[in-house]
Specification:
About 40% of the residues lie in helices and about 5% in strands. It is mainly alpha-helical. It has 2 domains: about 35 residues, no CATH class; about 40 residues, no CATH class. It has a two-stranded antiparallel ribbon. A hairpin with a 5-residue loop joins strand 1 and strand 2. The longest helix has 16 residues. The radius of gyration is 18 Å and the shape is extended.
Length: about 100
């Protein structure tokens, strides 16, 4: 996902820290005596709903991947650079008889 992109509704979504690792953010906060905000700030936590577990599961999965390959995040980042927004989600792209 690009750091800035336009949604279908015409909004510009800006994610300036998309390529910054969480551990880098935590280290920055520690180095500057900042108190990070945790999952308690998640909007889903303000409602009486089940704990959003997908994010936590993904963090564990990515951590396990990194244990097996220390370059996994560089590889993931590089692979995203080959995705073209204008064609990736085009439904006609997947209408193929040869697969």
């Amino acid at each position: 996902m690009a750091p800035i992109y336009k949604t279908e509704r015409g909004f510009h979504l800006i994610r300036p820290l998309i390529e910054v690792r969480e551990k880098q953010l935590r280290a920055f906060a520690d180095d500057n005596n900042l108190q990070p905000i945790g999952d308690e700030a998640c909007p889903a936590m303000l409602k009486d709903v089940k704990m959003p577990y997908a994010r936590a599961n993904m963090k564990v999965w990515l951590e396990d991947l990194e244990k097996g390959n220390s370059n996994v995040f560089k590889m993931i980042s590089a692979s995203f650079k080959h995705i073209h927004d204008e064609t990736f989600l085009d439904p006609t792209r997947w209408n193929r008889d040869d697969i």
